Amino acid sequence: MLNLSNQSVAETVWHEKPRQSQQELLSAERGHWLGRTLLVVGLVFVVILFLPWRQTIEGSGSLTALTPQDRPQAVQNAIAGRIEHWAVREGQRVRKGDTLLTISEINSEYFDPNLPERLREQLAAKRGNVSANAARVVAAGAQIDALQAGLQVQLAAAANRVAQARNTVAIDQADLVAVTNFFETAKSRLARYEVGYRNGLFSLTDIETRRLKLQEDLAKVTSQRNKLASSQQGLANARIALSEIRAKYQENLAKTQSDRSSAVSSRASAEGEVAVLQNKISNVEARRGRYIVRAPQSGIVVRTLKAGIGENIKEGESIATLQPENPVLAAEMYVRAMDVPLIQRGRRVRLQFDGWPAIQFSGWPSVAVGTFGGVVSVIDVVSSTNGRYRLLVRPLRGAGDERAHIWPRQLRLGSGVYGWVILDSVPVWYEIWRQLNGFPPSLKAEPDGATPTSAGGSKEEKSK
Asked: What is the 3-state secondary structure (H, E, C) of the chain?
């Protein structure tokens, strides 16, 4: 060995000290103790590897209400108006129906303070118009009945005149036949008398007398023919009069029916205007009832969204945020998409709330301190915007020590929450192997009824 130091070392140190160190390092007692220690540690490690380990799925979120009606809601005004008076302040507790805000009218159509009375006057006038039109309809109906009755009488009279004219024509025709026969007879006699006159049997006076008689009969035939033509013309006139009566009746009937239809149309129009006025009166009365904005349910006024007196607000605009009292709390947790198939409704959950110190052993939830129990109530069937799925966890009731599961009364909506969904038990060695390989938790069997459509549960389960 090179001696590079300037100081020398005694020879006895080089020969005696190494022998003393070697005796201490190679002591048999100490070696046995070290072996036993390593053996015990190994046995404990092996035992730990076979201990049960509860698999969990971690998730985080915030507190919300289990039912929609218990969640914070925006109170909106039904009509546009101007703020006149605030009856509440932020943080104030209100009951259902309490006045929150008073507004005034800004629509010029409703400025008249006597608008309902004036609308009722218009309504009374329109109802009178309806009654008048109804009377017109009744009168038109009576006129139609009178026309029908008058038609029957006129038709009967005209028919009698036609029958009388027909009889006259028949008589004249018979008279014409008779005078024609007389004329033919007179003509034959005149011919015989002329033959007898030539033979000297009759005198010239007799011939002239027969000729005069023939002229008289011819005049009677002509007169009877003219009379027959006049009778036939009278029959035609009677028939024309009958047709004229029918045509005039149709004209009067059409005019009366037109008047009746006009009255019916006017009545329907007036009834429509009456309905419009009634609707307008109801709207005005309902609108005046909207000048006071009331609390839709009991709760606490969290924040007023409008400020000042005289500020105009639009129709349907939010004016305040109301938190309903005594909400049924639920933890809104978000988990990874790969873990959702392993979670079913009814799974136990351990929760840690912001502001409450807790110690949670993931594999042994029974020894956790400061956590609270819950049960999965709702599993969303679609993912949220961040790609995670939402769980609603309600408080656990009726299992074990109930006081250990009662959530603190000081919890408020929106507080942060961190949770662990409890799955099945596996050996510690399996959990270590799973974590090293990056595998998801496993189940012993496929969950029953764990379909997306049944994630929300039935109505009976929701009512529970």
From this structure: CCCCCCCCCCHHHHHHHHHHHHHHHCCHHHHHHHHHHHHHHHHHHHHHHCCEEEEEEEEEEEEEECCHHHCCEEEECCCCEEEEEECCCCCCEECCCCEEEEEECCCHHHCCCCHHHHHHHHHHHHHHHHHHHHHHHHHHHHHHHHHHHHHHHHHHHHHHHHHHHHHHHHHHHHHHHHHHHHHHHHHHHHHHHHHHHHCCCCCHHHHHHHHHHHHHHHHHHHHHHHHHHHHHHHHHHHHHHHHHHHHHHHHHHHHHHHHHHHHHHHHHHHHHHHHHHHHHHHHHHHHHHCCEEECCCCEEEEEECCCCCCCEECCCCEEEEEEECCCCEEEEEEECHHHHHHCCCCCEEEEEECCCCCECCCCCHHHCECCEEEEEEEECCCCCCCCCEEEEEEECCCCCCHHHCCCCCCCCCCCEEEEEEEEEEEEHHHHHHHHHHCCCCCCCCCCCCCCHHHCCCCHHHHHC
